[in-house]
Specification:
198 residues; globular; alpha+beta; 8 helices
């Protein structure tokens, strides 16, 4: 059985939502970052970066939320959280799966800290560009791959919910509101919300 290391009010919501979407049993290991639990030798053996979420599957340890999504989606293909290898949608799925940590999270940090980073040197371009690109992609909806929900929606949906609805760090747009509504209507999202609330 997989073990998911998580903490309330953190990026590990994506891991909870992901595991709930699989429909598979898993063990939740509360790693409360507010108490420093992520810095214990036991946890650092799972993720030397001392961050949640982290996942153990037997002898395999995985850190980084997008990597966890990719691994679990491929490990449980019956959950249909990823287009299979060879499917033409696989490339876009992977692009959006990694758009969250590669573009959205840096853009949120840029907005939050008001740091001026030249677009020519920022790997994500600019916060405006990131959210314009996402806005255009979500206009087609309801999900990033059209009618097909995927683990990429877990990464981006949880990030937008966090940044727009929970912490009001990013201004909303009509496409973002529709998308967050579609994501939060999923029963697995709702179960994860209850778990995360304690």
């Amino acid at each position: 059985m997989m073990k998911l290391y998580w903490s309330p009010r953190s990026r590990s919501f994506s891991g909870l939502w992901l595991m709930e979407e699989t429909g598979q049993p898993y063990e939740r290991v509360l790693t409360d970052i507010s108490t420093g639990a992520q810095k214990t030798p036991e946890f650092l053996a799972v993720n030397p970066m001392g961050k949640v979420p982290a996942l153990k599957d037997g002898d395999v340890s995985i850190a980084e939320a997008s990597a966890i999504c990719a691994y679990v989606a491929d490990r449980y293909p019956e959950a249909k959280l990823a287009p299979p290898i060879g499917d033409p949608r696989r490339g876009k799925y992977l692009q959006w799966l990694f758009f969250s940590p590669g573009c959205i999270e840096p853009a949120i940090i840029q907005i939050f800290t008001k740091i001026d980073v030249p677009t020519s040197t920022a790997a994500w371009g600019s916060a405006t560009q990131v959210f314009d690109v996402l806005d255009a992609a979500l206009e087609k909806g309801p999900f990033l791959l059209g009618d097909t929900f995927s683990a990429a929606d877990i990464m981006i949906g949880s990030g937008l919910n966090f940044a727009i609805r929970l912490f009001k760090m990013v201004p909303s747009r009509p496409s973002f509101d529709r998308y967050i509504d579609a994501c939060s209507a999923r029963p697995a999202f709702q179960r994860a919300t209850v778990i995360a609330a304690g």
